[in-house]
Amino acid sequence: MSEGVYQRIGGAATIDRVVESFYAAMETLPQAKTIRAMHADNLDGVKKVLKKYLSEWTGGPALYSPERGAPRMRQRHMGFSIDNAARDAWMACMDAALDAHIADLQARAELRAAMKKLADWMRNAE
Questions:
Q1: Which domains does the chain have, with CATH numbers?
Q2: Which positions carry the signal peptide feature in this UniProt record (predicted)?
């Protein structure tokens, strides 16, 4: 991902909107039922964590690592069965959120490509 994506997309306000839309899509997209079931009923905590992670990951303020250390995303998700369908459902939710809130087409494409790599790497089941 290129430098300055955080600023190009609109910073914290856009990250907040993307995360809120991502989880709203998880609540409504039929294919996302299985990944929604992997989460607690109350999503407030996980939303805060994802907002901090995405802030840092896109080149914004380091909000995640001072509190939680190195991301180790795959290790943190090993307790969940993540197969191709789960990966695709996660990406469908993220694609909807990116489409709704990232106006800069190049930044959106960069984010989508990076998130697709991350989602693919998270798979741990057939």
A1: 5-121 (1.10.490.10)
A2: none
Give the span between the Cα atoms of 75 and 88, in whole angstroms.
Answer: 19
- pTM greater than the 0.85 cutoff: yes
Tokens of 20: 């809120």
| Dist CA 57 CA 59 (whole Å) | 6
pLDDT at 126: 85
Token pair belonging to 39: 């989460």
For helices 84-101 and 11-28, the axis angle rounded to 10 degrees is 130
Place of tokens 């798979």: 123
CA distance 123 to 126: 8
Any idea how long the chain is?
Answer: 126
